[in-house]
Amino acid sequence: VTTGGGVAPCHARGCYLGAMVLSKALRHLVEHVMGLGPVTGLRVLALKKRGKGRTAVVRTPLLAAPLTVRTGTSDLAIFDEVVLMGGYDLKLDRPPAVIVDAGANIGLATLRFKALWPQARIIAVEPDPANFALLQRNVGGLPGVTVVQAAITARDGVIGLHTDGLDPSGFHVRELRPGEEGVPALCMRTLMQRHGLDRIDLLKLDIEGA
To answer: Structure pTM?
Structure first.
């Protein structure tokens, strides 16, 4: 940059930060396009720019069915974790016949498990009402998948969920307050008995506060 015949050096910190931002954006672009294909990859990146209050559908053969996500929430970050980074792409000695997805959220892990092991029976458990509604929409029609609105806890009962100020992927389990309806709480023994399970081949637990 020339100013009055002289040269103004670039501010080192500003140039470094700018290069870092550009490098990160380019890396995300490459990761999404390479991992999802150009159409889906660019769509997911565009959805990350949208504000809250909208839903959108993402389709990829890496999931067993189309996925409805909420923009402006952690849904797409979890998508990256499960789909792009292969967070649940496990190498097992044999395909699991029975899977329990505890803390299923909107169904991303269930959809990935079903894509990897189509014959598996999956019990997807999620306590939060908003997440559960989207879980039903995303996986409810898949053969061999059962959705259960409940929290997995040490004993059966009813518990409260604290979600104030937290994103849709996070909440805290607490004791029920007077007059509060709450959500069902099940221990693993009860869950297995209710669904006729004598064994679980793959158990995924992502149950904050429990």
So the answer is: 0.81
